[in-house]
Specification:
It contains 7 helices and 29 strands. It has 495 residues and is α+β, with helices and mostly antiparallel strands. The relative contact order is 0.13.
């Protein structure tokens, strides 16, 4: 054998390479350890711990439990694990407290508040229909003078409107003066009464007796202050007894008529306080009370007419002005309420997420009432003191929907567990009394792969209108006897 001789330089170079390799491996291990230690504590806390498996089971035979994983002896599938934080009969979703804190979940308490109602509506100011004066002629005559006035003008009480000549008064006045000179009091009284019947005011009769002068013309004045609605006289026209000379609407008080939706018909009462803000007077608030609730409902707008009487001291409240009205109705009764933001509304129902201990949240269907400020009244579904999610509830609701948890009905007792549904799509392979053979896709919330199998029906009428080959959405519940079909809805024809 030929011996190989290495020079000293080659041996020294080999030793240096080996030392560098040893240093590199050791430094890599040290650097890896330092990298692990350098993980921020906040990130390390977000690591979800491994869930504890209680046992394994077959979803079709859930009452049979196994202590280790493997193939199912009943079906051609693997056994499914049941974790410690999973409960097939629970209607709550569990979320780690750290995650709820990061999501900004905020809770609110269901409390009992005084039952009061705030109604917001619009209204329009109009005349007080009870404050109207009609001026009529009490005797036949002729118009000798008309003051310059037209409908819509403002008048003061006692302001002259027209001057009239009443020829019928002349003979009766001469008779009164003649009898007065004779000193027969009974005849004088009869003459006065005749003048009153002819329409002469008492003040004019007294003036005729005092002056001894016949006065056949008189001035018609406005009996109240307000707006001239009509002035149906012209210079020289003849006026008969009872003919309307003028019509005046008063402005000392005005009415605001408000259209209130019919849903408040059962709570509105006369005397309710009203706050009015007119568009023409920004920044000003008028206080009033409901005086009348008209009995007739407007069939077109489905609203009630509510009347509020307002004092118009300076005449600034002009008919036709519109404004925003806030009606407050208070009673001695109380009702459960929670923040309006806590209610999850859909097209057909309303839900809240009720918070339980150990980070569990349960979707509960509630029957809501009226809104009072920032709160919504609860008619059924919750109890006083319940904790509900007021912020972040939509994320929790999404998690509950993903796990197949349905909301507890408002008519159910709080202690009654609701069914947990697991959903998939399927094609109907065969139908038989009380059961259906489905070629279904995977049930993700059961960790169950797709296959063809026979399902018992929770209700026989679930298959009404369905036939073999129909494509359906199926929802099953897990009971002691196995999986049962709870919902079966057609979504298309078979493939």
């Amino acid at each position: 054998m030929k011996k190989i001789h290495f020079s000293k330089d080659v041996v020294m170079a080999s030793i240096i390479v080996i030392l560098l390799l040893v240093v590199g491996v050791g430094g890599g291990r040290w650097w890896g350890q330092q990298s692990v230690v350098a993980v921020p504590p906040a990130e390390a806390q977000l690591v979800v711990p491994e869930q504890q498996v209680l046992y394994w089971y077959d979803p079709m035979v859930p009452q049979q439990r196994f202590d280790k994983p493997g193939p199912s002896p009943f079906m051609d599938m693997d056994l499914v694990p049941m974790y410690a934080n999973m409960d097939s009969t629970s209607n709550a979703v569990k979320i780690d407290p750290l995650i709820t804190q990061n999501l900004g979940v905020r809770l609110a308490t269901v409390t009992r508040i005084p039952l009061s109602t705030q109604v917001e509506a619009t209204g329009v100011i109009g005349f007080n229909e009870r404050d109207v004066a009609v001026v009529q002629s009490r005797s036949s005559g002729f118009v000798e003078r008309v003051w310059p006035m037209a409908p819509g003008d403002l008048v003061k009480a006692g302001a002259p409107l027209v001057e009239m000549l009443a020829p019928e008064w002349t003979a009766a006045e001469y008779e009164l003066l003649a009898l007065k000179s004779l000193g027969d009091d009974s005849l004088v009284a009869a003459a006065r009464q005749r003048l009153r019947l002819l329409g002469m005011p008492n003040a004019m009769i007294a003036a005729v007796e005092k002056s001894g002068t016949v006065r056949s013309s008189f001035i018609v004045t406005a009996p109240i202050s307000g707006v001239v609605e009509s002035l149906d006289t012209r210079l020289g026209m003849a006026v008969s007894v009872g003919q309307t000379v003028a019509r005046v609407r008063g402005l000392s008080t005005v009415w605001m008529e408000v259209a209130v939706p019919e849903i408040y018909a059962g709570v509105l009462r006369s005397g309710a306080a009203a706050e009015i803000r007119l568009a023409g007077f920004p920044g000003q608030m008028l206080a009033g009370t409901v005086t009348t609730i008209l009995p007739m409902l407007n069939e077109i707008t489905r609203s009630l007419r509510v009347r509020i009487e307002l004092v118009n001291r300076d005449g600034s409240l002009r008919p036709g002005l519109s404004g925003h009205v806030l009606l407050r109705v208070s009673t001695s009764e109380s009702v459960l309420a929670l923040p309006t933001e806590a209610v999850i509304r859909s097209g057909k129902r309303s839900m809240v997420m009720v918070a339980h201990e150990a980070g569990k949240f349960e979707p509960v269907e509630v029957e809501i009432g009226r809104e009072i400020g920032a709160q919504t009244t609860i008619m059924a579904g919750l109890n006083e003191g319940d904790k509900v999610v007021a912020s972040g509830q939509f994320l929790i609701d999404s998690e509950a929907s993903f796990k197949g948890i349905i909301a507890r009905s408002s008519s159910e007792a709080p202690s009654t567990p609701a069914l947990v549904l697991h959903e998939a799509t399927a094609i109907i392979s065969e139908l038989a009394p009380g059961e259906a053979t489905l070629d279904h896709g995977p049930f993700k919330t059961l960790a169950m792969p797709g296959m063809e199998m026979i399902f018992p029906l929770a209700k026989p009428e679930l298959v009404n209108g369905l036939k073999v080959g129909d494509r359906v959405s199926v929802a099953v519940s897990q009971r002691d006897a196995g999986l049962f079909v709870e919902k079966l809805n057609k979504i298309g024809g078979g493939s």
